[in-house]
Structures are given as C-alpha cells and as structure tokens.
Amino acid sequence: MSMQVSKKKAGDFQTCHDLIPGLPSELAIECLIRVPYQFQPAMKSVCRSWRTFISCSDSSFIQERRRCGKAELLLCLVQPLSPPIPASKPVVETLMVADENKSDGVSQPRVFCTPRFGLSVYNVAMSTWHRVAFPEGEQIPLFCECVVLKDAGKILLIGGWDPETLQPTRDVYVLEFSGRKWRRGAPMKESRSFFACASVGSMKVFVAGGHDDQKNALRSAEVYDVEKDEWSTIPPMTEGRDECQGFAIGTDQRFCVLSGYGTESQGRFRSDGEIYDPATTSWSKIENIWRFPDTSPRGRTAGDFRSSSRLWCFTDTELQMETEDDLRNWTLDLETIQLPMKTVSSDFARGRESEGEEGVMMKMTMGKKIGKWNDVHIPLDFSTLPFSHASIYV
C-alpha cells in the first residue's frame, strides 16, 4: 500500500486521533478511505473518531477517496415511487364522454392519485440500488431538479411541485454525502418548475426559466451560493423558456440554457439557447443549436466531458432532425448518439417492456473516440422513469 496522504492533509484530521490504534494517522487514513461506500454507515458507528473523519464537513474524506482512485460513481435519480398514494387534494380532470343517444358529449370527472417521488441511487461500481431516506414528515417535491456539487460532495433537490398543493415551490433540500444528512437550504426567490439548472464552479448553482403557477414561461434567473446559503437574482434571459435544459460549459464556467418554449407556443421547442457569463453578468444567444422542435431536450442531452463546447443528444429512431442552412452562429456543437432502445434519461438510457415490469438500463462508457452501451439490470422497485438525475463520485 502506497502511503500518499500529505503531512498537511494528515494534520487536517488531527482531531481524529487514534483512527486505528498503533498506526500512524497517514496510514490509518489510507486504510479507511479504501472501505467501499456501502459499508461507510456502519463504519461511523465504530467509534467517534471514525464518525468525525467520515463526516468531515469539507468533504475531505470523499476527496481522499478520489485521490487514491477508490471513489465510486453514484447515479442519483429523482423518480416516482410505485404505487402512487391517494391525493390529499385530488387532481380532477373533466372528460367529454360520448353519449350513444346524443351528438354531444357528457362531462364526467376523473380523479388521479398524486404520485410520490423518491431519490434512488445506483452504485455503478457495486451494481447495487438503494433509496435515500428523506426526513420524517417531509416529502420530496414532485418534478424537482437534481443537481450535484461534485467537489463539495453535496446533492441538491430544487423547486418542483409541492406534494400537497401541487403548486410550484421555492424549496431547496441539501444532502451531505459524507454525513448522509439532509438539511433545508434557503428557498429560491421565485417558485418555478421544469426549469434549467446546473452547478457552475465548486459552490454555485444557477437556475433559469421554467414556469410559474399560471403556466407562464419564465425569463427570470437566480444563482445559489451553497456555502453562504444565499440566493441572488441575476439578469433575466431575453426569452421565456419552459421545459428548458441547463448545462455548465467552458473552462470559464458559464451557464447554458438550451431550447424550451414560450407561453403561447407550448410544445413547440425553440432551436436556440442562451448562455450566461458570470464575469460580464450578461446573456448571449446561440442560434440553431436544438434541431428537434417537437421534442424536449430534457433527459436527452448531456455535456461532453472531453470538450467544453460540445453537447451530446441521445436519439432514437423516431427522433427526426430538422437541419438549418445557416450554421455560422453556432458556438456549441451538438453531436447525436443513437440509443439502443426507445428510452429517456441522458447517458444512462432506460427501458422496459410494460408498466410494472423490471427493466434494463443502458450505460454508455466512453473510450478515446467512441462509446459502448452496457446492460444494467433495474429491480422492479426502481423501474419507473426518472424526472431528473445527476451523478457524483464519492
């Protein structure tokens, strides 16, 4: 075993003395960071020094696991639980049912159950699934956005619908992966759902667009400083964009909002996007980047980790591309990748034969030039399609 922990890093954990009696702290740290993620909750119950070390608020434990190549990739999915629970305030939809003896229809109400959402985690290294417990008495907002701060070892659930009122919410929940504890974050300044969201830099999260409680497409945008637990308003986009997709792009860490549609053109997705530059606090438009006007970019797009100016679009055989003659204004390249099945969910594609059956998830592993799809088994309890997702090494 190579002892790579620096004297300074070992000194950072000096309060965790006697991690392993009889071993220098550097060597003890090297031992503990190699324990698989699934056993870390049990490790914290061994002694106070182990619990303190694993639950470091600055995520030093996770960073040390990454340094030695032992960090495990977790895919976090916000997805409906099955079966749905009865709604406290039922959603009623009026249907026109044809009467055999009359030419017109008869209005009849249909009551739906409110779905309940959970946060599921797939451990790629161990091929295991589990669901993260939420604080007692609270529920994960429906259709909330999932975003991670990789360096800080945190996952955030932002916005969505209140499970009781079914109205857009400002709520923010923060999960510390090291301590596996939830806390309430400062709420957004504006309620919104189906918006663009992305972490930019080490401790900032940007949100923009989506819609309000009247289904109006929003132009507004905000930034969350996770360390300060504060939201700040930034200049609005030039266009209202509902059901848009967010990315962090470039080495200078800019925020990209892709496609979406306006209030009066629901379902017709825009071909353009907008990029916010924190250095200049201004937006710039990118033209002709989304070429699928009948399809949402949400769940079908991902950033290419090998390039700061390229996006991937995952397509199936029914997704037809509309081409544009003038591509001179492009500042981002969009590369299409054929899915092995009709699915959704970015670089982790999902599918199943019918509702209620176990499914398969296809994971893309990228080589130097091309990628390869691999089967991943999905247990029945985790087979519902996710609304949002993010991945993190821990």
From TrEMBL:
GO term, biological process aspect, one: regulation of phenylpropanoid metabolic process
Highest taxon of the lineage: Eukaryota
InterPro entries: F-box-like_dom_sf (IPR036047), F-box_dom (IPR001810), Kelch-typ_b-propeller (IPR015915), Kelch_1 (IPR006652), KMD1-4 (IPR044595)
Name of this chain's protein: F-box domain-containing protein
SUPFAM superfamilies, sorted: F-box domain (SSF81383), Kelch motif (SSF117281)
Residues in F-box domain copies: 21-55
PANTHER family: F-BOX DOMAIN-CONTAINING PROTEIN (PTHR46407:SF18), OS02G0208700 PROTEIN (PTHR46407)
A Gene Ontology cellular-component term: cytosol
Pfam families hit by this protein: F-box, Kelch_KLHDC2_KLHL20_DRC7
